[in-house]
Every structure is written in structure tokens, then in C-alpha cells.
Design goal:
The protein is of the alpha/beta class. The chain contains three helices and four strands; from the N terminus they run E-H-E-H-E-H-E. The chain is extended and about 55 Å long.
């Protein structure tokens, strides 16, 4: 906590075994504590392996980098059903 700058946030991913700091450390320097129950690399790999074994995948629509503006417009209109994913290999491709 002490290493955080003014208005800094300590974000814990996964569940730490122990956290040892005084609550006054949160108010000094206007520090924040945030967390996510999502695990680290090992847990993420286990989840990906499980999904692979059970044919679980995300529903996505892949768009080219040139289509970003139309993608945003479709998002605004609520026309995107799942998730838009930008194919980063098209980032430097010339526009059609």
C-alpha cells in the first residue's frame, strides 16, 4: 500500500492468502483497493484447457481495422449480437 502514488489503486487478481496493512493506509494518500476473483496464469490456462476439451468457445464477429468506425456505429445502433473483435493483422493493411 505504501508504494502507491496519490490516488493509486492496488488491484488484486485471484485470492491472496493474506493482506497485511492498516486500513488507515487507504485514507492516507487517497489509496484504493480493488479486486477480482479471476485467477492468474495457471487458472486461466486450466479454464482454456477445459473449454478446449468441451468445445466451448466465445461467439465473436471478427472485423478488419478498416471497419472500426462502422463497427462503432453498429454498436451504437445495437446491431452487434455478441462481441466485435478487431483482426490486428489488418491494422496496417491498405483500405479497400
Amino acid at each position: 500500500m505504501r508504494s502507491l502514488k496519490l490516488d493509486g489503486t492496488l488491484c488484486c487478481l485471484g485470492i491472496p492468502a493474506d493482506m497485511d496493512f492498516s486500513p488507515v493506509m487507504l485514507t492516507m494518500g487517497r489509496r484504493r483497493l480493488a479486486s477480482s476473483g479471476v485467477g492468474g496464469t495457471l487458472e486461466t490456462q486450466e479454464m482454456l484447457d477445459f473449454c478446449s476439451q468441451h468445445n466451448i468457445s466465445a461467439d465473436v464477429e471478427i472485423i478488419s481495422a478498416a471497419d472500426i468506425e462502422s463497427g462503432f456505429a453498429r454498436l451504437d445502433r445495437g446491431e452487434v449480437r455478441y462481441r466485435l473483435v478487431i483482426d490486428m493483422s489488418t491494422l496496417n493493411a491498405p483500405a479497400d
